[in-house]
Design a protein that fits this description.
Blueprint: H1 2-23, H2 29-54, H3 59-72, H4 74-83, H5 100-123
Helix pairs in contact: 1-2, 2-5
Amino acid sequence: MEIKKILFWLLSLPLSYFVLSLFHQSYNLLNWVDFLFLVGLVLLVTGGLMYVVAGGFFSSFFHSCKVFFAAISRKEEIISEIEGKKERSRIRFRKSSFPSGILISFGTGYCIVSLILSILLVHS
């Protein structure tokens, strides 16, 4: 399975150069390195956000907001007293079906490759 990921990652590098050539009339290696870094950064941030949300980081925040707004709302308090509900359920996020580790590893790989290539281009 890891070989497929590495092969896909290696094949996506020339594909990204082709995609850049479709959208830019004048492109060179430096533009491709910049584009590769931006794609890697977007993948890294998206994967990190998916990891944080799937880990349940925001569940307690949403639960505390729900409790706060229910406490200041007199109507909600009366309804919960009538229904006999004193304990509120916690909001839980479902784990993502798409693993965020793939996005994080691809984004890190793109950023590292663009960093190496930019250092080589600047010093040559």
